[in-house]
TrEMBL record:
Species this protein is from: Nocardioides aquaticus
Descriptive protein name: HTH-type transcriptional repressor KstR2
Domain HTH tetR-type residue range list: 32-92
DNA-binding region: 55-74
Region (Disordered): 1-29
Keywords associated with the record: DNA-binding, Repressor, Transcription, Transcription regulation
PROSITE patterns: HTH_TETR_2
PANTHER family on file: HTH-TYPE TRANSCRIPTIONAL REGULATOR RUTR (PTHR30055), HTH-TYPE TRANSCRIPTIONAL REPRESSOR KSTR2 (PTHR30055:SF175)
Pfam families referenced in this protein's UniProt entry, alphabetically: TetR_C_24, TetR_N
Polar residues compositional bias, start-end: 10-27
Gene3D superfamilies: Homeodomain-like, Tetracycline Repressor, domain 2
Length: 235
């Protein structure tokens, strides 16, 4: 019986890795479609069985193939998870930067941001919560490129939140009770801490309601109540 590689291992040395690299280089449509099927199956399993309870073997069974075939498309369970998480995290970043760059007041932006982030945790449960527990400085060497990319995305997200708070202080809608980055970290930490107790499948309160409640708490302490005027023009 072939033993499934341990977590973090690479594909069996049977030429699969070479064939996978060749197919990736050719950008074969069928190859990408099959990868998408595997990702979809893995997403369902991660949600129902959790990250630790999901194996390459279970993913293969869900897809209707064998483990060796999965290794033709992904080198490990970690790679499958990394691909799933990357799209979600980058999507959240795009939304955060879109909110930051909108013409709304900073208080409106912060409310949208908090609710969106909380809803994303629920929609993509448990991917983002597992991701929150990752130590990007201590990952398998094979995942260092991915970890570096995620650190860059994290910094951009943090910058977007910090910028919104800075905008609010400048326009007078947010109280200057601390450095913008300190307030931003507090905001993100408040929402992220839900990974300790929130499960959208069993929670009595939905994610949107939780996000709105958090936004109310934050803005009750930060908002000045002032209505920002139009931006100053040169001349």
């Amino acid at each position: 019986m072939n033993k499934e590689p341990e977590s973090g291992s690479v594909a069996p040395t049977s030429g699969i890795g070479q064939r996978r690299a060749t197919a990736q280089g050719q950008k074969n449509a069928g190859y990408e479609d099959r990868r998408a099927q595997i990702l979809h199956a893995a997403a369902l399993l991660f949600r129902t069985g959790g990250y630790r309870g999901t194996s390459i073997g279970k993913i293969a069974e869900e897809v209707g193939t064998d483990r060796a075939s999965i290794y033709y498309y992904f080198s490990s369970k970690e790679e499958v998870f990394d691909v799933l998480v990357t799209d979600v995290v980058k999507g959240n970043l795009a939304i955060a930067e879109q909110i930051r760059d909108s013409s709304a007041s900073a208080t409106v932006k912060l409310r949208k941001l908090v609710v969106q982030l909380m809803c994303s945790y629920a929609e993509h449960y448990p991917f983002l919560y597992v991701y929150l527990q990752e130590n990007m400085a201590h990952v398998d060497p094979k995942r260092k490129a991915w970890a570096a990319e995620m650190r860059r995305v994290n910094r951009r997200y943090e910058a977007a939140v910090t910028d919104i708070i800075g905008q609010g202080i400048d326009e007078g809608s947010i109280r200057a009770v601390g450095e913008p980055w300190v307030l931003a970290y507090g905001l993100m930490g408040m929402v992220s801490w839900t990974h300790r107790w929130f499960n959208p499948n069993t929670a009595e309160v939905d994610a949107k309601t939780i996000g709105e409640s958090y936004a109310d708490v934050l803005l009750s302490g930060l908002a000045t109540g002032a209505v920002p005027g139009p931006p100053a023009t040169a001349g």
